[in-house]
Amino acid sequence: MIGDLVRKLVYYIATSIDGYIADPTGDTSFFPVHKPILDDLFSRYPETCPQHLREPLGVTASARRFDTVILGRNTHEPALQAGLTSAYPHLRQLVVTHGDLPEDATVEVVSGDLLAEVARLKTEEGLDIWLCGWAAASPCSAQHPLAHGI
Q: What is the rounded distance in angstroms from the CA atom of residue 11 to the CA atom of residue 147?
């Protein structure tokens, strides 16, 4: 694939003004969750709304930017704690972990070479790839040649 035909790896997350994605304990509850902000976010990127919140928030649109999400175990953990085995069954979901996860046909476990996996994903047809959460992002930082933006 050449030029714009290559899928992009995009690190898309919420951050504080000083660049943090969580407090020192991993808590993200300090981020404001106001309806106008969520409405704007999900009107542009409806696929980033977790499945269990789509109906309550009225998110019905199909994916516009991403059809694949890569996240680390810690980013996936809130879904597990909520009793879900998959937060994004409407996307191809890859969870980077060396541990066990509950069985779910919509979740692929990546425990090997993440950079090789990303390189392979980028050769496939599809929308862009959403890199969600720090654990998954650390080997694929925005400075890495495989990344296309934040």
A: 8
- Nearest-angstrom CA–CA distance, 141 and 17: 19
What's the CATH number for 3-21+65-149? 3.40.430.10
Name the pLDDT band for 95 (thresholds 50, 70, 90). very high
Give mean pLDDT, residues 53-70: 94
The 10 Å Cβ neighbour count of residue 32 is 7
Take residue 21 and report the two structure tokens written for it: 């994605």
- The 10 Å Cβ neighbour count of residue 148 is 17
Q: How far apart are CA 143 and CA 82, in angstroms?
A: 34
Average pLDDT value over all residues in the chain? 83
Cα–Cα nearest to 66, from 123, 11, 145: 11
132/28 Cα distance (integer angstroms): 14
- What is the residue type of 135? A
Every domain of the chain and the residues it spans: 3-21+65-149
Q: Is the pLDDT of residue 2 over 50?
A: no
Closest CA to 42 of 86, 79, 12, 2: 12
